[in-house]
Amino acid sequence: MAYSDKVLDHYQNPRNVGAMDKNASDVGTGVVGAPECGDVMKLQIKVAADGRILDAKFKTYGCGSAIASSSLATEWLKGTTVDDAAKIKNTQIVEELALPPVKIHCSVLAEDAIKAAIEDWRQKQAAAKQNADGISGTI
Amino acid sequence: MKTPIYLDYSATTPCDPRVVERMLPFFTETFGNSASRSHSFGWTAEAAVENAREQVAELIHAHPKEVLWTSGSTEANNLAIKGVAEMYRQKGNHLITAITEHKAVLDPMKHLESQGFEVTWLPVDGKGRVDLGQLAAALTERTLLVSLMAANNEIGTVHPLREIGKLCKQKGVLFHTDATQAPGRMELDVEAQGIDLMSLSAHKFYGPKGVGALYVRRKNPRVRLAAQMDGGGHERGMRSGTLNVTGIVGMGAAAALARTEMAGETARLRALRDRLEARLLRGFPEAVINGDIASRLPHLANVSFPYVEGESLIMGIKDLAVSSGSACTSASLEPSYVLKGLGLGDELAHSSIRFSLGRFTTEAEVDFAADRVITEAMRLRDMSPLWEMVQEGIDLSKVKWTAH
Asked: By the 8 A CB rule, do B126 and B343 touch?
């Protein structure tokens, strides 16, 4: 199977591989996929108070296209805002990496991972806020 | 060292130069049709075909008249399985095979199932072995054929042919074995092993592609087959079609080499294969060897690299020609049905590489290959979320995954 140059580049030189503290309140973590399907992506974002994404990291178990999709996603996430990040579509990833039809699921997985990471961060924000409200209420 | 390094001898082998040398005159000089009875061109071709038939028969301890030429193992398997089922339909309607057989056995079986035959699909254990007790229990009055391969193409596990043959004989059931992977790599003896039908393919043992053979027992019992192609009645009416004389000459020469060189070659290959596995395990201690260590083909190593996905690993070792156990390059995303059949966990089934060594593999190539695989597998494992989870003490089987 022929891979596009961009897939090969991300596969050989993946950007932003790594992990951040998943318990930190400003970090959102998304884990999607399943070993039985042959791919699992973990995507993390570190978000500033104003909603800007300061950092993004990934780890992926999967084929070259899955690695490239998640690597590309972290590149796009850094510097953008969570609201804009939520709008990233898998078709943009397909286009950028020139993924063939059998590899479209890799891009879908990357989109799901972005959404899951944002959702995790939002839940943490809401919980923190509730906590803060609760604490101020008792004083 | 020349790259890419070919370590996929179970997919196909190069023609041995000695085989090619024997074949060449039959393209241009002695090009006759072996069915031409009226002139020397035909007679020469026929003599060459019969000589090759003897060479193949000798390899498997058969009589030359029991060897039928086909286009390869797929055709031989189809002819054996469908040919027996159709010929003996009055006698019964039941066939037995195992889930780890090649598609060229599984699919004819499925075809027969759709025609009203009953098929028993034997499971295998974690090493790819069938349970002989289970096989014995599955044999009934209505059973026509047992088809179990000599050795598995993905994991190399060798079936106990002698015992299977004995069981079948006791019950009066025909025994077919797909021996595609076996020639030159393990002993084949249709008499001692009680085999009634055997499929062979030349290109798996340094012969040309597009030619194969089916051994069909002539006595005790005499096996009859319903032809699957109608035509000129070649090959005792069981397989019509002008013979591929050049290919057949090549298959005969390859069979002669496989027979005479097997002892030395298997010892050499086993040593190389063991060296490869030892080196891989030293560099990647969590690697898992698949198949039956006690009984498997000498040239094959099927190794899983846990938490590393097979297709990405293959992508990283472009200078090695190996096979991935996982069929992720297809749209199905299913890992190998053979590895799944062993009951391997998903992270192992998706992570396997098949190395198959051959006549022209060197020690230096094996060392280079092992080191390349270790480097790449380590790199990929470092970016694997599964490995990270395991390091954190998470039990992957307990995780609620979002299957897609």
From this structure: yes
